[in-house]
Amino acid sequence: MNRAALNALSIGLLIALAGEPALPQRSFSTAYDSGRQVKLQGVVTRIDWVNPSAFFLMDVRDPAGTFTTWAVEIGNPLELERDGWKSNGLHIGDQVTVDGIAARGETRQASAKSVVLTKTGKKLFGPTAVRRAAAPAAPVPRWPDGQVRLGPPAGKKGYWGTTATKVIVENTGTRIPMSDDGLLINLADTDKIAPFQPWAKALFEHRQRTFLKEDPLARCLPPGGPRQLQMANGFQFVEQKELGRILVLLGGGDRNWRVIYTDGRPQGTAAEQVPSYYGNSVGHWEKDTLVVDSVGYNEKFWLSGSGLPRTEALHLVERFTRTDLNTLKYEVTIDDPRTYTRSWNASWTIQWVPDQDIQEYFCEDNAESTFIR
């Protein structure tokens, strides 16, 4: 069979598996219905260990004896490997049992909660198998002039990884039930998220009702604003003191970067800037806290994965405080009078990943799309 015929056959399989195009960075809530639990048994026919999500295909026989093909998502390969799972743990021809959550709609796809070899009962994938030990406690690293280092100590390596939250909500102390990626359990809680203008509230609720499926990040567009600090695979600061700037390098998304100028220049107005995903950022130090003022944002990104809107009037004031070697406290004041009735604050902490570099990761077509290659 020639390559064109193989591609045509694969495209047919892809269409059979999914009713909508696969998007690279879609959220869990967009793809899967947590209320639909499935148990599958069958034979593995294909394995795709690629980012952002590893998949395998399996043939499943229904009670009538008919075989159907299911695509099973098992997670981000980088995270799986960090937790002790390996790509060679599963082989084509293995008979497996999958407990999982079914995709929305009629798609024969599931997100695995566990994958077990049917014959032996050996668990191949499941909840985190290896708990990474916390980094040893240590004081804040500093430059020779006494200023806090936001990156690794001299001669070491590391980056900022896990965040305390993946969503952005106003600091009110009120617990708001929602999924990990920001889908509200009760839409009536919308007013607890942020002080919305009426149009912004309506848009936020529309994004919630449609399960966040219109998120620009799903199309590999950059995560602008504070969301850049909540991406999978973390970020790192590169402090270029001699050039009067700090680079923020992102490990997720499309490996973008942001520039924070620390050379004393004044902040301009939003109208003076070329609108961009990361805006124009000017920073200065207030004792051990880096304070960053940013304006000049475009309107092509969501402020958070939960669907927070904003306009080009967005103005952010961020405060980065490293309280010890392993903890970065992040505080942000969000001011966008076209979108919100007043300015409001959000905050979270971020944990240090010592002795490692950010692994290579690119936003690319999800694994389903590799079926047509």
Descriptive tags:
373 residues; mainly beta; OB fold (Dihydrolipoamide Acetyltransferase, E2P); 2 domains; 9-stranded mixed sheet; 5-stranded mixed barrel; disordered N terminus; disordered C terminus
Global structural class: mainly beta
Largest sheet: number of strands, sense, barrel closure:
9 strands, mixed
Gyration radius (Cα, Å) is 23 Å
State the strand order across the main sheet: 7-15-14-13-12-11-10-9-8
**Oligomeric description of these chains:** single chain
Overall helicity: under 10%
- Number-wise, the strands total 15
Instruction: Report strand %.
Output: 25-35%
Overall 3D form: globular
The domain count comes to 2
Q: Give the SSE string.
A: HHEEEHEEEEHEEEEEEEE
Poorly predicted runs are 1-21, 369-373
Distance between the ends = 15 Å
**Number of contiguous helices:** 4
Mean pLDDT: 86
Tell me about this structure.
With 373 residues, the chain is mainly beta. The chain folds into 2 domains: 3-131, Nucleic acid-binding proteins (OB fold (Dihydrolipoamide Acetyltransferase, E2P), Beta Barrel), CATH 2.40.50; 158-354, no CATH class. The protein contains 4 helices and 15 strands. The protein has helices at residues 3-17, 28-31, 77-82, 198-209; strands at residues 32-48, 54-61, 67-75, 95-103, 109-117, 123-125, 158-163, 235-240, 245-250, 257-261, 280-286, 289-295, 315-324, 327-335, 344-354. Strands 7-15-14-13-12-11-10-9-8 form a 9-stranded mixed β-sheet, with no helix packed on it. The protein is globular, with a radius of gyration of 23 Å.
